[in-house]
Amino acid sequence: APTWQREEFPALAWSFIYFFCLLCAYYVLRPVREEMGVQGGVDNLPYLFTGTFLCMLAVVPLFGWASSRWPRAQLLPVVYVFFMTHIIGFYFLFKLGVNPPLVAKAFFIWLSVFNVFVVSVFWSFMSDIFRNEQAKRLYGVIAAGGSLGAITGPTLTAALVAHIGIANLLLVSCLFLFCALICIVQLNRWAIHAPHHSVAENRGTALGGNLLDGIKLAFTSRYLLGICGYIMLLSTLGTFLYLEQMRIISATIPSPVERTQLFAKVDMAVNILTLFVQFFVTAQLVLRFGVTFCLMLMPLVSMLAFGAVALVPTLAVIIGLGIIRRALEYAITRPSREVLFTVVSREERYKAKNVIDTVVNRGGDALSSWLNAGIKSFGASTAHLALVAIPIAALWAVLGFWLGRKQEQLVQNKQEAQS
């Protein structure tokens, strides 16, 4: 039986296409970013992650200012047009061959900002138009649209790059972002007539406040602080594995073409596995076992994964476990994590959530990269790093348990207040 109801289908379909276009736009460019990271030197990745974090600190207040003044129907298009202009700018820089080493580093940082920012805005929009009960049923299907886009993106890159070149791939990405804008317009029209929304939600009115509200909200609520910690730990452990993978690939595969092909193949494997889990597992897992179980699943699997890396620290094992971790993150953890935001206010969904998904997320990347470099400076091996990661994953599981129970309590409190 379908997990959606008839009146929900238009919104579900547009959301599915929206996320497909969004992740397709990103994954067209991701293999290029990975190769640029290697060419810039794996030892320089902590600096690039730090640069990404600093860019987030600059962009988030700007988003807070915009969300305070523009209603949803204007805010989301402005965000996507903002990034589309950057893509066009990089297109001309690549075409003109302006300072390739510097542009490559700038592109790595920019794409890292673009990815988490536009995806964060997407899920803020989803939590704004779908209720908590709807989110549990529909988020898995919507996320599957993103996975299809994530499969299509690198497939297009592999097929087109030899014929049109790297620069023209940016125009392909820009075209998919434009299609995402069309979906936003359609979803806003649907939300206006959704009976379960308040007047403010239906009209998508401006949130008011000032540019620092998101930071204040994110760090003054225990619940939101818990989400901050959960995402920080997820990001930290993911970066640990990512850096080890990049370091070994850089040392063992000398050809840029072969490295780019490997990155594309890894992305393909991740997204095919993710798509399978999203279509056949996610919704049933969330509905049957609840958000708490789903939030704890990834940390528990991570403990086993890092244990395996500690025993057999080879490239094949690291890539294989990395594929499983990323697939679980996209298919189970991400939709479950987004359910957490269905019980907070609209202001928290846009402003605080954006701070958490961007600054906190990329802050975890930067912190983890320097922690990794620091541990490595003492002569630690990949196996030693994996052993350090296991207790961090255990703490992450405990936090996931607390967040899941807290979300259930907030849902109950909201239902009691409405009855």
Structure, explained:
The protein has helices at about 10-25, 30-40, 45-70, 70-95, 100-130, 130-190, 200-205, 215-220, 220-250, 255-310, 315-340, 345-375, 380-419. It is about 85% helix and about 0% strand. The chain is mainly α. Mean pLDDT is about 85; it is low at about 195-205. The relative contact order is 0.15. The longest helix is centred in the middle third of the chain and has 61 residues, at about 130-190. It has 13 helices and no strands.
Q: How many strands, what sense, and barrel or not for the largest sheet?
A: none
What value does the average pLDDT take?
84
Beta percentage is under 5%
Note the overall shape: globular
- Please state the structural category: mainly alpha
Q: How do the helices and strands follow one another from N- to C-terminus?
A: HHHHHHHHHHHHH
End-to-end Cα distance, whole Å, is 30 Å
Helix-residue proportion: over 70%
- The number of E-state strands comes to 0
Radius of gyration: 21 Å
